[in-house]
Amino acid sequence: MHSLRRTWESIANDEDVSELDQHVLSNHSFGSHNVNATYISQHIDHLAACADKIDTGITRRISGAPRGDRKRRREHLRSVA
């Protein structure tokens, strides 16, 4: 279960989803890391767009399709244990 969570977080990071958005989407507390983050309110549409970016990244890796805006030719899922 945690390997899937780590993979999801890694892809979120690769897709330039902010650390704050990653914390909220993965249901982690974020105020303990940065007290200023507790003042930020995120709209559900913004979080849905972030989740869509992650979903697209997962789908792209599974299909083996290259990412257009990066210099890397191919990205693959890797196991994190």
What this model shows, in words?
The protein has 81 residues and is mainly α. The protein has one domain. 49% of the residues lie in helices and 0% in strands. The protein contains three helices and no strands. It has helices at 2-14, 19-25, 44-63. α1 crosses α3. The longest helix is centred in the middle third of the chain and has 20 residues, at 44-63. The chain is globular. The model has no long low-confidence stretch (mean pLDDT 79).
Structural features:
81 residues; mainly alpha; single chain; 3 helices
How would the blueprint of this fold be written?
Blueprint: H1 2-14, H2 19-25, H3 44-63
Helix pairs in contact: 1-3
What is the C-alpha radius of gyration, as a whole number of Å? 14 Å
- Described by the principal axes of the CA atoms, the overall outline is globular
The N- to C-terminal Cα distance equals 10 Å
Q: How much beta, percentage-wise?
A: under 5%
Which structural class fits the helix and strand makeup?
mainly alpha
Share in helix: 40-55%
SS elements, strand count: 0
User: Unreliable segments (pLDDT under 50, ≥5 consecutive)?
Assistant: none
Helix and strand element order: HHH
Number of domains: 1
Largest sheet: number of strands, sense, barrel closure: none
Rounded mean pLDDT score: 79
Enumerate how many helices there are, as a single number.
3
